[in-house]
């Protein structure tokens, strides 16, 4: 007899959970507001930050450099520098910034502040050492940048962002739940035989799945901290932990309640993520995976495995077009690239560890050349609102799932027609 897993919430539990989440959110916002008041208390403030992006910009016939920086507290802001300012990409700086006009909303999102660079730290951080090691295995700096994005969450340069958006594979270059799942599986299969050896001899009474999960989660937490907690990876990590806790207690994991619980929990603890586009795109991807698995749970597992990437591609396309507008004739091939990435990602990690990281450079250079000829497909935001409404109703009605697919396919046909 197979025991059926139960729903997460039944009667009064949602009210208790929401009250608790509201309390946590209020406390998190209070801490953020105290930090904001510290930042804006005086005319200037000294911060240590790492340079995420550095590029030239011309405005009103004046050319200067823009620096995008992130502090250890995940505060993200922009500042300017002279055109002749040295290359400090990925380096740690100490700056005196002038944030007097920064509002609390700006503080929670991103803001621009005038600044003076006080110190440029020349010694490499651990993340820079990893990036240097990765770059040493490639002659093409664009290829090195791709692997740095995959292994250390280093931002891609602007041209690569546009190229991969044209190809519809931007989600593969942003470390998220997919990458976390692969890393979890690798760790699990590496640790399991060693743990089982000790488990059978010294502590057979312990729950081996729980012990291995705690170890894997701890290693992933260290990796998350090393990468400065990117939004998509943070969402995936919290969902991994929540999913295991629910699984361990016999509660359904593939459930919109689970997804909603994770969203509320993350936003209560990290309210700044409410303004993160990457966070909401990551949530959207999981939403459409769950939508498929809930409404088509009775079809064979093999068909589920084959159809999920196609369903997610089609249903995410309207969001991609409205927000980014980039499309090319090779965009639909992202379904194939996404499936192949399941093999490529762990293999590329192993190849870099043994010194053969450049094995796929020629393939990646060909892929880059395919994405250089995309076009812009402009679609109004009103369509995004309509599409989001239909998608949410489809949680309760399979007819609306078909309507969601019909609207998505209409977007797809329009995009193909627009570029041909």
UniProtKB/TrEMBL annotation:
Q: Which cellular component terms (GO) are annotated to the entry?
A: plasma membrane
The answer to whether the entry has keyword Nucleotide-binding is no
Tell me the compartments it is located in: Cell membrane
Q: Name one Pfam family in it.
A: Competence
Domain ComEC/Rec2-related protein, chain residue ranges per copy:
162-417
Tell me the keywords, alphabetical order.
Answer: Cell membrane, Membrane, Transmembrane, Transmembrane helix
Listed transmembrane segments: 172-191, 212-245, 251-270, 277-296, 302-324, 336-359, 379-396, 401-419
Main localisation, per the record? membrane
Question: What's the protein's topology in the membrane?
Answer: Multi-pass membrane protein
- What is the name of the protein in this document? ComEC/Rec2-related protein domain-containing protein
Q: Which organism is it from?
A: Sulfurimonas hongkongensis
